[in-house]
Amino acid sequence: MDWLDDKNKARIVQELVPGKQITLAHIIASPEPILYEKLGLNPAIDYARAAIGIMTVSPAETAIIMADVAMKSASIDLGFVDRFSGSLIITGTVSEVEASEQAILDYVQEELKYTVCPMTRT
């Protein structure tokens, strides 16, 4: 097996393409409660009204700005922000999460001149 090293451990090579872009903007409406647990999010949520928003960005430090925009644009909870991987997870009602993600997409596209992907939803 070529992808295993000499100690039978898998090696993963990750590449980042330089650029300013949001590569994922997705909303999970009414997620199963187990998904909250697996992500380490607050389980004391009204699951019937809940949504999880997931976004990724390059350069990764922009996730900090995205978290700020999200929190100022709607009454969401910040689930996770990683300035090293460029990941952002937010929670709230479907309309709050959608408003926050749209505010982020608009801000980074208009103010920071990033390329953005369309928002998707399941």
Brief write-up:
The protein has helices at 33-39, 62-73, 94-110, and strands at 21-29, 50-58, 77-82, 87-93, 115-116, 120-121. With 122 residues, the chain is of the alpha/beta class.
Question: What does this 3D model show about the protein?
Answer:
The protein has 122 residues and is α/β, with parallel strands linked by helices. It is 30% helix and 29% strand. It has helices at residues 33-39, 62-73, 94-110, and strands at 21-29, 50-58, 77-82, 87-93, 115-116, 120-121. Strands 1, 2, 3, 4, 5 and 6 form a six-stranded mixed sheet that branches. A hairpin with a 4-residue loop joins strand 3 (77-82) and strand 4 (87-93). The relative contact order is 0.23.
Distance between the termini: 36 Å
The helix content, as a percent range, equals 25-40%
Q: How many beta-strand elements?
A: 6
Class by alpha and beta content: alpha/beta
Strand content: 25-35%
Q: What is the subunit organization of this protein?
A: single chain
What's the average pLDDT?
87
Q: Which ranges are low-confidence, i.e. pLDDT below 50, for 5 or more consecutive residues?
A: none
Integer-rounded radius of gyration: 16 Å
- 3D shape: globular
Number of helices: 3
Q: Write the H/E string, N to C.
A: EHEHEEHEE
Largest sheet: 6 strands, mixed
Reconstruct the topology from this structure.
Layout: E1 21-29, H1 33-39, E2 50-58, H2 62-73, E3 77-82, E4 87-93, H3 94-110, E5 115-116, E6 120-121
Parallel strand pairs: 1-5, 1-6
Antiparallel strand pairs: 1-2, 2-4, 3-4
Helix pairs in contact: 2-3
